[in-house]
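User: Fold this; tokens only.

Assistant: Input:
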Amino acid sequence: MMLLQDNNIDIAFISETWLTDRNNVSTATIKSYGYNIIHDYRIDMRGGGTGLIFKNHMKIKIVNIDAHEISTFSFIVGKLTGVADFSNVVFVCLYRTGPVSSKFFTDLNDLLGKLSLRFENVVIAGDFNIHMERPSNDAKKLLETTESYGLQLLSDTPTHKDGGCIDLLFYSADLIDPDSVKVDNVLNVSDHYPVFLSSLVLKLSKKSAKQVSYREMKKIDHTVLTLEIEGFLSRYTILEHSSQFKKCILDFFSGLQKIINVHAPLVTKTISDVPHAPWFDTEYKKQRALCRKLERTWRKTKNSD
């Protein structure tokens, strides 16, 4: 904890927490230093576990992901709330150990696919136990999988005392300043070196504000609205305005608008207009989800039909 305090860390990604329940002496100690924690603890299991430690003035809530088919790694997903410019950013801490199997990439693809349907920006970090400092099929496949979701690898600097780059961070464009990365290979607190980022911000200069207007139609009492419209129509006679047809139409719509303004007033708010990749649309996301579903079915049945 002194490491976090001395370096004024806002958010820390922790692999191998070794926690076996939600609240214990370790979590109490973390809170006594002015931090909070959300974590994926492992009941009756030694080692492993993932967590996000963050300053207690920040609000990070756990995001539940349907992960019953993900078995090759552990992870925790947290969403920063209460900060407008980070309203659509999630932090994922991941831990994988053992031999690399093809199912790992299927599981990772499944996780990233589910996150991409709900969030625009992702930061995923942890101990992947895949060496990125040397060419390999596993390293290539990992880059292909993450890059297909618009994520980029932050650094291939060695993060292990034996020289391996296995503690990795992937992030959406414009979330992190690559020049701020520092791997501290002097601190002897673990066989893994801590990786520091001096900034983790959205580049607001690439955003533009826009106004949107809407009505909360779902809150309308349709019975009362119907009665008021019927009352208006019973009092409105087109013959009274037949000599001025244009005025007749304007008065008619003006009357209806007054009624709807009472039941569902027009609300206007200013939001940030974030540019998106034009090809990463709803149709693409749905087709990608369908592809993953069919792939899982094929792996279970081996039926190409």
